[in-house]
Amino acid sequence: MLGILLIYFIGKRFYDLSIEYNKSKWLFAILSVVVYYASGIVFGVVVALLDLYIFNWGIDYENNMGFNLLGIPVGLLSVWGFYVLLENKWKKSVSLVKDEISDIGKSSQED
Question: What is the pLDDT of residues 60-85, one digit of tens each?
């Protein structure tokens, strides 16, 4: 149930952000959920490789509840980073719409 709530709120926030900057709404909502799960998978693979080849922590891979609980903050941090990245990128590329109707008949030197 927690996973479904996380998916909804993550997707909703990116959906609202894309509406604010006139971008593809569903693309970024779905992409945010993909980033959340992909970061959890990458985290699990990195921890498993570190356990097997470097540190020998002796992690019990049969009980994956710990991985799931550790994956939540890792996924949320990666989604937050992706959100900040997109927001900063889109803020820089916002174009201001100039009211050209009131400028009809004026020369370009009168601005």
Answer: 778 778 778 888 999 999 999 999 99
